[in-house]
Design goal:
disordered N terminus; alpha/beta
């Protein structure tokens, strides 16, 4: 099920997969006017994650496609860190796939600032999905 809240589907996307995983997409330059859309999107993501957790009584799995992210402003880091902190209690694991070295450096910063230990980067979607579906001992 794709959640359409009027976002440019090439840049910000939310989908709940039939496998129970929440699939997110981030793209474009996360700066300027796009920060308003990012803020709105992050609130919707939080609501979906929280609702899924409350309806299933199980921590949520999240996979994020960052292939199309071209750049970001410091404010984007603040918005995304806030999302990671707010959702920490509801999420089993979050994994990104794709992204340039520059964007992966920003992800390392997000991980550090949020205190999340269940957030990793992968080259492929398949690897990201495999990790979020694996047990904690793997």
């Amino acid at each position: 099920m794709v959640i359409d809240k009027g976002y440019d589907d090439k840049k910000l996307k939310i989908e709940v997969g039939s496998d129970g995983i929440i699939y997110l997409s981030l793209g474009g330059k996360l700066e300027g006017l796009n920060l308003v859309a990012l803020e709105k999107w992050s609130k919707e993501v939080h609501n979906i994650i929280r609702d899924r957790y409350e309806n299933t009584y199980a921590p949520v799995k999240v996979v994020i496609d960052i292939n199309a992210v071209d750049g970001y402003a410091p404010e984007a880091v603040t918005i995304l860190t806030k999302l990671l902190v707010e959702d920490k209690q509801f999420v089993y694991r979050s994994a990104t796939h794709g992204g340039s070295e520059y964007i992966l450096m920003a992800q390392d910063m997000l991980t550090s600032l949020s205190g999340r230990t269940n957030f990793k980067a992968f080259k492929t979607k398949e690897d990201a999905v495999a990790w979020v579906n694996s047990t904690a001992s793997e």
